[in-house]
């Protein structure tokens, strides 16, 4: 198979973990006889510095002719007070390519059970998928502005029926491939948008009689996610709730550094990135955990290229390395040897 991938390393630890992705693609290509070509483009803070634009046209055009997109992370303290923000580049690329379906699997590798700050008895058996709406809601609603000379501010949460319906369908389809249990998370006791969300979930559920559906308020869901994570199978929720709950879910696995994601559209182009950010506090030290990025490559192979065996091999290699007693600095595993980003990458590749 021949595939062309645009890589967007971005800022902070982004370039460090993108190196891991490149190494992994090379290794998978050699082992399974695929030709993966990769071309790097700018996004985020580095793109602001070089082009005064967090998502330059050149990057968009390159992505348009790509088979898939891999992203590291954007943002950092350097641009905190800048008028143009790195994060705008990320939001813009999601919107431009209509990447409305963000799949965030939370799988706990056996050897990570002990690394969670939660009791092992609580995290044992956790395996859930957060389906996050990614191109609507509070992130994109207009108006979003300061008023009255900066004394008041407005952000708007908007959704159309169609925007909710399509993400809800993805969630039901996902549930059908898993344990057939869907939890829709909202704030229907307060928000009108949530009340419409519930109606749509109930309507679509009639087409999926095998799936058991529950509605949960986001505050209670946040509590249950860490007190009883194995209760959940598929969670579907709006953009901001999904952002918050997925970082919370990383506590189950012991580190934000191990969780991957896929952002998918209806026309087939996908963007794959770890769920964490640019981690400015550890950038440049070669200690970032590359697992979230490497599993994102695995998701790309599976969702964009249909390479299920190769994708499973990556997951298996990650599990193997952790089970063999190796970790990165962010993981708390008693007795395990701490590796650098580059060493962890090599170790995982050697287990393929
Ligand atoms: P962050 O996710 O970058 O970091 C939170 C904590 O997790 C930090 O202590 C960091 O060191 C740690 N961490 C994250 N990834 C890690 C990894 N791979 N290995 C080891 N430790 C890891 O969140 P933040 O500090 O709130 O945000 C920093 C910047 O990143 C901000 O500008 C934010 O907007 C941006 N951000 C970008 C993305 C993205 O590009 N998709 C996602 C989240 C945050
Ligand atoms: C994520 C990030 C982004 C989001 C930010 C950087 C815009 O937190 O990918 O989870 O909120 O979607
Ligand atoms: Mn986030």
From TrEMBL:
Its EC number is 1.1.1.85. Its cofactor is Mn(2+); Mg(2+). Gene3D superfamilies: Isopropylmalate Dehydrogenase. NAD(+) binds at residues 277-289. GO terms for molecular function: 3-isopropylmalate dehydrogenase activity; magnesium ion binding; NAD binding. One of its GO terms (biological process) is L-leucine biosynthetic process. Pathway: Amino-acid biosynthesis; L-leucine biosynthesis; L-leucine from 3-methyl-2-oxobutanoate: step 3/4. Residues 4-348 form the Isopropylmalate dehydrogenase-like domain. Binds 1 Mg(2+) or Mn(2+) ion per subunit. Substrate binds at residues 94, 104, 132, 219. HAMAP family: LeuB_type1. This is 3-isopropylmalate dehydrogenase. It comes from Jeotgalicoccus coquinae. The lineage of its organism: Bacteria, Bacillati, Bacillota, Bacilli, Bacillales. The gene is leuB.
């Amino acid at each position: 198979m021949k595939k062309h991938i645009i890589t967007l390393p971005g800022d902070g630890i982004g370039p460090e973990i993108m190196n891991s992705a490149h190494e992994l693609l090379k290794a998978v290509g050699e082992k399974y006889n695929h030709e993966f070509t990769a071309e790097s483009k700018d996004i985020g803070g580095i793109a602001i510095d070089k082009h005064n634009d967090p998502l330059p046209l050149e990057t968009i055009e390159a992505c348009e002719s790509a088979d898939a997109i891999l992203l590291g992370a954007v943002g950092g303290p350097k641009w905190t007070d800048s008028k143009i923000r790195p994060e705008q580049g990320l939001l813009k690329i999601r919107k431009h390519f209509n990447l409305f379906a963000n799949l965030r699997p939370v799988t706990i590798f056996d050897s990570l059970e002990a690394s969670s700050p939660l009791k092992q008895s609580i995290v044992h058996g956790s395996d859930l998928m957060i389906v996050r709406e990614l191109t609507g809601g509070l992130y994109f609603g207009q108006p979003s502005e300061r008023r009255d000379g900066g004394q008041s501010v407005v952000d708007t949460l908007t959704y159309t029926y169609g925007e909710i319906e399509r993400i809800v369908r993805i969630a039901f389809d996902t549930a059908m491939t898993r344990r057939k249990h869907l939890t829709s998370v909202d704030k229907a006791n307060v928000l009108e948008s949530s009340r419409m969300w519930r109606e749509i979930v109930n309507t679509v559920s009639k087409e999926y009689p095998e799936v058991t559906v529950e509605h949960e308020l986001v505050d209670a869901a946040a509590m249950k996610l860490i007190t009883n994570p194995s209760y959940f199978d598929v969670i579907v929720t709006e953009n901001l709730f999904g952002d918050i709950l997925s970082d919370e879910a990383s506590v189950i696995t012991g580190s934000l550094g191990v969780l991957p994601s896929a952002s998918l559209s209806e026309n087939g182009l996908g963007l794959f990135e770890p769920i964490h950010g640019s981690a400015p506090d550890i950038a440049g030290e070669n200690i970032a955990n590359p697992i979230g990025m490497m599993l994102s490559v695995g998701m790309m192979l599976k969702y964009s290229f249909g390479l299920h065996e190769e994708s499973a091999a990556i997951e298996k290699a990650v599990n193997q390395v952790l089970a063999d007693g190796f970790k990165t600095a962010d993981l708390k595993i008693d007795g395990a040897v701490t590796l650098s980003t580059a060493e962890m990458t090599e170790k995982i590749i050697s287990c393929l």
